[in-house]
Amino acid sequence: MRILLAEDDPLLGDGIRAGLGLEGDTVDWVTDGVAADQALTTDEFDLLVLDLGLPRRDGMEVLRGLRKRGDMTPVLILTARDKVADRVAGLDAGADDYLSKPFDLDELLARVRALTRRHTGRAVPHLEHGDLRLDPATHQVSLAGQPVELAPREYALLRLLLEQRGKVLSRSRLVEALYGWDGELESNAIEVHVHHLRRKLGNELIRTVRGIGYGIDRPNKDPA
Description:
Subcellular location: Cytoplasm
GO cellular component, one term: protein-DNA complex
Keywords: Cytoplasm, DNA-binding, Phosphoprotein, Transcription, Transcription regulation, Two-component regulatory system
Oligomer: single chain
InterPro entries: CheY-like_superfamily, OmpR/PhoB-type_DNA-bd, Sig_transdc_resp-reg_C-effctor, Sig_transdc_resp-reg_receiver, WalR-like, WH-like_DNA-bd_sf
Number of domains: 2
Largest sheet: 5 strands, parallel
Number of helices: 8
Protein name: Transcriptional regulatory protein qseB
Mean pLDDT: 90
């Protein structure tokens, strides 16, 4: 999952980016509201983690602009403004969740997982596809009850494709989701990750659509 973090505190921002990175997420980090606006209008993100007290442009202005453009990217607000009126204002402006500073990193990670789950329409925390099971909270992947060891970006790719079952994701979308702005990327990196996943999980799991990208088909009788 690709996340935009808008936070001007260097220590807090670094800690959040590291924590989300351990979850398998790709985090692009900006430190002011103008940069956040620019990133949101030029790139696609799965989640925005937004501090309200940003320099150059307040986080509430960033949030209102996002929703005014019709952008439905989920937004988790982080702020030291912990009055009820501030929380209500943020939620009414279009935020999906609100976390007051200081906070525990584990709670932040749990809220990010919950927002992702709701945004993708899942009622349960884990992802299942036939005999394949992925648990975002523990990073455990199993096939027919047997654990499967995946490299970090293999795991991130599998999670994204499972969350977007029934859709074909372009190679550029996958590159952005897995590498963001700072990742070092070999020209065939996505193809290599797909090859490894097929070798570990079966050739039929991931479908290639020539000239477009990759996807996992939704089972015919899938109730989700």
